Amino acid sequence: MSTLAIDVRLSRGDFSLRFDAELQLDGITAVFGPSGAGKTTLLRVVAGLEKGAAGRVALGGELWQDTDRRIMVPAHARHLGYVFQDGRLFPHLSVEGNLLFAAKRSRRRSGGGPPNPTVHSTCKPPAERSKRRSGGGPGREGGARTASETGLSAVVQALELKDLLARKPDTLSGGEIQRVAMGRALLTAPRVMLLDEPLSALDARRKAEIIPYVERLACDFGVPVLYVTHNVDEVARLASSMVLLAEGRMAAMGGVAEVLERVELWPITGRLEAGSILEAIAGESRDGMTSLDVDGETLRVPAIGVAAGTPVRLRVQARDVAIARERPGQLSIRNVLPARLVRIEFAESPFVELLLDVHGQHLRSRVTREAVEDLGLREGEPVFALIKSVAFEGRLLN
Amino acid sequence: MGAIELGPVWLSLQLAAVTVVVLLILGTPLAWWLAFTRSRFKPGVEALVALPLVLPPTVLGFYLLILLGPAGPIGRFWVQLTDTALTFSFQGLVVASVIYSFPFAVQPLQNAFENVGRGPLEAAATLGARPLDCFCRVAVPLATRGIVTAVVLGFAHTLGEFGVVLMVGGNIPGETRVVSIAIYEQVETLSYAQAHVLSAGLLAFSFLVLLGVYAFNRRLPINRI
């Protein structure tokens, strides 16, 4: 856990960024907002790439910038790794050359040791944990080897770059470029990784392939990640906390589920269909279906291809949740969860949002105002949530 | 056909080589600045650099003669420094050639650096590379094509210049009598055979150099810039 304190101002033409917050970096923190909100600019300010930014930036005890005191640590001296949207690999170097470029220079930065996988206690989501452990992290015990060797082989292994080492960047696919870019950034022994929409140039299938690697940055290497995206599915999939940006200002900060559920933020988070995130444990898969355990309740979904016992995160859209006062029979919807109606949120539309509590987890439902009146729904009452469809993490990105 | 006078050839090559070195030393920082600056002075500096492209060599030569002459500001300073005159000397020719060939080196360099762009340099900086490190390990390899072009154009243009050399350097054997001047004199004195040898030599040399450059550029791995 480290604290990134940012208090900066930057004006450029019509756009101005004014950001003042302390981010508790742990695992993956998403910076989310519509395009033009200033997400990338904020990341660039943190990295020291925006010369015109005034104010203060500090990571933990390390002061990176304080323009009032005329302190501006240049980008090359800040202990961070930056993954650009387009990867920005050096075209004149092979993949190995790109990695070595970073590894050779990591020693010049004081502080941080070589990047080595260390299993991180706060890792989430923990999907695929067991698989990764069996792979085994080299390096933890490798004190005798030189720093860059240990770091390089660990990174090459974790991001599965071995087969790419001899290739030139212009022969790589978009996903491979981002994997190399992440590895390269990791090799500078950063204290924080800044990822600027690393998946935006990829198609859905490639995105799903890269996501586990992004998680490894935070999990296996214990480097906190600041992850810029305008894709809410990526936020829900990857991040534990988030910062919401709009028009160069911070609109909200907090846990992902908490922020995405706030009604007053919907004008910003709006393009996403409001929904909720459920955490579940995968059960046995049989006959093309998997059972998911949600705090003792069971959901049946088309097989998701993860081992039994694997924790998974589900996203359920509010419009896919219907409400019944009694447990219905003779119904095609298979997934019915007992819930308690916590809050009824009226908006200026024929629709109403219901906040439900399922054994402590929140679920949202979107029904018509008329339905609420006909059923006589009141806050605090038990109801049944009928879930029409569930999106599993990997498949959100379709 | 008498013995071919090689003196002017060597002198030309020396002049071109020294000029190219000075061009790279002075032109690279300027081209870098032009490529990345957002200063409002940029257009003015660009126009100044490009002037030799459009001015008649005589105009340039005339002002250089005044500037570099023992009475001129630069010439006087040079006399104080070295006790020799800049005009009608090899050093004077170098100064004149650098100014005359400046756009031929600066413009390809500037284009090359602009094509490299901020992207790779920012990436290198976030990887811990200091500015000079960024320049040597990232900008130069990516700008190789432009650098080769600048060297060749600077070299070839210096070899071929005539008017400025004549006005600033005159025709002193072993000091300022370069190939182009020697050819001019041979033609004036109707020594066509000699003039043929030097002219054809210069023609063939220039063609081969350009051929070499274009062939090299084609084989360069970074074709996109």
Verbal overview:
By secondary structure, chain A is α+β, with helices and mostly antiparallel strands. In chain A, 23% of the residues lie in helices and 35% in strands. Chain A has helices at 39-47, 95-106, 129-135, 147-158, 174-186, 204-219, 232-238, 256-261, 266-269, 369-375; strands at residues 2-12, 15-25, 28-32, 54-59, 62-66, 71-72, 80-83, 192-196, 225-229, 241-246, 249-255, 275-286, 289-294, 297-302, 311-317, 321-324, 335-346, 351-358, 361-368, 382-387, 391-392. In chain A, the strands form 4 sheets. Chain A has a 6-stranded mixed β-sheet with strand order 7-8-9-3-10-11, with helices on both faces. In chain A, strands 2-1-4-5-6 form a 5-stranded antiparallel β-sheet, covered by helices on one side. In chain A, β17 and β18 form a beta hairpin. Chain A is globular. Chain B is mainly α and 225 residues long. In chain B, 78% of the residues lie in helices and 0% in strands. Chain B is built from 11 helices and no strands. In chain B, α5 (90-116) runs antiparallel to α8 (144-160), α6 crosses α7 and α8 runs antiparallel to α11. In chain B, 39% of the residues are buried. Classes of the chains: A alpha+beta (398), B mainly alpha (225).
Short description:
The complex is a heterodimer of chains A (398) and B (225). By secondary structure, chain A is α+β, with helices and mostly antiparallel strands.
Number of helices of chain B: 11
Q: Indicate the proportion of strand residues of chain A.
A: 25-35%
Share of residues in strands of chain B = under 5%
Low-pLDDT parts of chain A are: 124-147, 394-398
Mean pLDDT of chain A: 81
Radius of gyration of chain A: 23 Å
